[in-house]
Amino acid sequence: MTGSRSTNGSGGARTAAGRDEADALTVHTRTDEHLGRFALRPVDPAADAELLHGWLTHPKSSFWLMQEATLTDVEREFMAIAASEHQDAYLGFHEHEPRFLMERYDPAHVELKGLYEPQQGDVGMHFLCAPSDAPLHGFTLAVITTVMDMLFADPHTRRVVVEPDVRNTAVHALNEAVGFRIERTIAKPEKFAYLSMCTREQFEAARATLQRPDAPGGTKSP
After folding, report:
1. 3 within 8 A of 193, measured Cβ to Cβ
2. Contact 135, 141 (CB under 8 A)
3. Separation CA 191–CA 19 (nearest Å)
């Protein structure tokens, strides 16, 4: 797995019963003024593996480095995350439909161990929007805002740390829009990455800017 990664997205349909079940397991919700309800619930490795396999092996998801993964590989990957004390994975919903994936991790133990000096309150994250041929304007920005909103809803979170591939220009722009600042380039076994940080104060300032009616690409843009 690699850093904060994204493609534009849509997902598959759910039955009414499935929606009720997802709502019961929801751990965080956010309502976007223009795009509506976003929610997250823990990934069920067995039940969600087929859906996630389709997302992760899509050409638009190349930065997740799982293009050749089998369905079994994906299920095992998320079973390992579920069993870990240092990682969590969440399926994200937009208006009750599965549309994105989020991973939360402790960077002192996962992904960045030995590559930077961790601070108390640091949290790492990855996110992926489901590939789509008809992307919704402002969707990926709304997703990363929802992800950051969830992370900072925990009062113990002081700073979010990410390590996106240096070639992933789309996610660099999204990260900057929600307050991330690049610290330096680091060499990981699978890539060169921009070690980037966002404090609670930086996120709140960036969100206030995005909510201005005249903000380019902001949440009030049509």
Report:
1. yes
2. no
3. 38
Give the pairing of strands 36-42 and 181-188. Answer: unpaired
CA–CA separation, 195 vs 204, rounded Å? Answer: 20
CA atoms within 13 A on the CB side of 11: 24
Q: Is 174 helix (H, G, I), strand (E, B) or coil?
A: helix
> Which among 204, 111, 92, 221 is positioned nearest to 153, based on CA atoms?
204
Joined together, the tokens standing for residue 138 give 């402002």
Residue 136 DSSP one-character state: P
pLDDT at position 79 is: 97
Give the count of beta carbons closer than 10 Å to the beta carbon of residue 117: 7
Q: With b meaning 16 or more CB within 10 Å and e meaning fewer, what string describes 75-112?
A: bebbeebeeeeebbbbbbbbebebbbbbbbbbbbebbb
Is-contact 123 161, C-beta < 8 A? yes
Q: In a 10 Å sphere around its CB, with 0-12 CB exposed, 13-18 middle and 19+ buried, how is residue 136 labelled? A: middle
Spatial CA neighbour of 85 closest among 108, 115, 106: 106
User: Which residue's entry shows tokens 């965080």?
Assistant: 28
Q: Please say whether the beta carbons of 137 and 153 come within 8 A.
A: no
Please write the tens of the pLDDT for every residue from 139-196.
Answer: 999 999 999 999 999 999 999 999 999 999 999 999 999 999 999 999 999 999 999 9
